[in-house]
């Protein structure tokens, strides 16, 4: 595993544990020689993980639409900055470059990104591992929501096996490195296998 795409909040959140978690993940990735692919911002949790990797000798590739340069404040010290035209191109480029994905705590943008990679994994568009960095139980409600969709007949039980979750950075990266994707199955219960 050479590159992990990290989705993260462009804000730091109210708990100091979120910033500490971003820094811990950055240290683990740098120590393991894993490059960071991310949205290119210098603020929020996005900036914290990038700063930490750079401080510890890691490589950081940022992908940012030109229209967000001012709002998200592009990081000026990245190893590589890739400029794209829009959010769709940003996500496509990050997907292309990444060997795996991790979601740090974040808001709607982070949720949208993590649900897209989970949905695409479910459909077999990619087979890359996905991790939820469950700091202070942040992603427990999301895991519960997926279980609720399964219990309600809108998702297959295997959907809970499309991702790994941990509140420890080192453990999460190891889980991604040893991830075994569940066998592909027909996602449409109305269609007989």
Automatic annotation (TrEMBL):
Swiss-Prot/TrEMBL keywords: Cytokinin biosynthesis, Hydrolase
Stored Pfam families: Lysine_decarbox
Protein name, as recorded: Cytokinin riboside 5'-monophosphate phosphoribohydrolase
Enzyme class: hydrolase
Enzyme Commission number(s) from the entry: 3.2.2.n1
InterPro entries the UniProt entry points to: LOG (IPR005269), LOG_fam (IPR031100)
Top-rank taxon, per record: Bacteria
